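Hey, quick one: can you model this chain's 3D structure?
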Amino acid sequence: KLVEAAPAIPERRAELALSHNNLALVLRGGDETAAERHFRTAIRLQEGLVAEVPDAAEYRNDLARSRNNLG
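Sure thing. Here's the predicted structure for all 71 residues.
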């Protein structure tokens, strides 16, 4: 809901992406399909952030972590 209320704030989208990544980590080993879906959602959000704010190293790092977690 925070992202819906303020979609222009990159930090909110970064937090949402991190939540998807973390949820995927919890689901991995149990529900692989759901885990992959959440990793891919995180990656999609993070790719958008990197494109929008290319100088933000944190967003690039988060994207690399999610891609690595996906495998």
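One thing worth noting: The two ends are 29 Å apart (CA to CA).
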